[in-house]
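Meet our chain:
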Amino acid sequence: MAPPRRYLAALLALLCACTTTAPLASVAAANVPITTCRSFCGNITVDYPFALHPGCGHAGLRDLLFCINGALMLHLPSGSYRVLDVDYAYRGLTLHDPAMSDCRALDLTPAGRANGFVLEPWRESYLSPDPDNVFLLLSCRATSPLFQGFPDRHLPCRNVSGMGCGDYLGCAAWDDYYAGGGRRPSGDAAYGTGTAAGQPPECCAVPWAAIRAVNVSRLECEGYSSAYSLAPVRAEGGAAGWAYGIRVSWTLPESNRGFCGACRATGGACGHDMESHADLCLCGDWNSTSNCDSSADAARSDAADTPRAVAALRWAILASGLTSLWYYASRSNL
């Protein structure tokens, strides 16, 4: 028996309502805001080439910075360092290692509590300490790799940008160290000349380029210090006036500058593919390998085709429904 006509009319009204409202919901869901990947940690801005979110920033500096309880931290195989400053104009990071010695206090242990500064091999082309950053390796053993091949003057030890062990050994922290029973060397404690036979220098100053990895335990040292110079003028007050910390510079491929500039100029954010690590321009709900204008053209084309397809489907459903209703209505009149 065919359904009464009042049911057929209600079914027709419901069919029209569903085919009219369904496309509106799909259009609204496609509206995704564009993200910039720019963020903050405490009072420090985190922007390209760095990032705190996966896929943002340059791939060579990925998985590097983390915001922990409002403190920006840099993680490397050698340990975690507090980021004190990010200088985007001069491409420099200033880091602090809590286990590092300075002019006020020495942190020396037989096993070397501080790890120093070690980079992953694949990251070395993007990140490295400044040429004007000096690493002062303290209380190293005579068997240290630092001194192998240089039995007389220990040639790796030298001043860096006017900073060296000669001044550093004049810090008040050494007086406290010697007063507490620390070994007081004879002769030139900075470079090893005139010391007792087989006795290494108390301090060895080296630039990053000389050793490429400051691994305190592997170098058989008891600790280290690090200082940097941002000006060619010698600091007043000797080592007490130095800026202590690790100054690190970053470098990106020249081709990346043009890519990122074009991406930002079209409203995108510079990022990378998390699998291939290739450059990507993040444009909100789509990504581009060039800029957001090229992707937007394709997106607008797809967006223009979508309403037509939805409208065709809606009318097909409506036509099918009307045909069925006409069929039942005609049968009810028989």
Q: What stands out?
A: Confidence is low (pLDDT under 50) at residues 18-34, 295-306. The first strand starts at residue 39 and ends at 41. The CA atoms of residues 250 and 260 lie 16 Å apart.
